[in-house]
Amino acid sequence: MDEIFSSGIGEFDEEEVYQKFPLDLNINAEKSKRVVHELARTRLSNSLIQAVALLRQRNCPGVVAFLK
Predict the structure, then answer these.
(1) CA distance 24 to 20
(2) What cellular component GO annotations does this protein have (predicted)?
(3) Within a domain: residue 7?
(4) What is the mean pLDDT of the chain?
(5) Containing domain of residue 61, as a range?
(6) Which residues, 6+ apart, have CB-to-CB distance to 54 below 8 Å?
(7) Which pLDDT score, from 0 to 100, does residue 12 have?
(8) 6 found inside a domain
(9) Residue 1: inside a domain
(10) Does 39 map to a domain?
(11) pLDDT one-digit tens code per residue, 20-50
């Protein structure tokens, strides 16, 4: 999941993540989906915090580079 979230393209294959991975790993699909959502929420929260910190430092080019 870390590779998918840090690939830089901003999207992933829902069928692969929500159906194929749980099946391959023999884990509960619903629980897996909740874990993926929580991980995404945490990553977004951390990104927002970092972007705000860069803005407070008046580092606008850093924010733009960070969000790309």
Answers:
(1) 6
(2) TOC-TIC supercomplex I
(3) no
(4) 81
(5) 12-67
(6) 60, 62, 63, 66
(7) 73
(8) no
(9) no
(10) yes
(11) 889 999 999 999 889 888 888 887 787 788 8
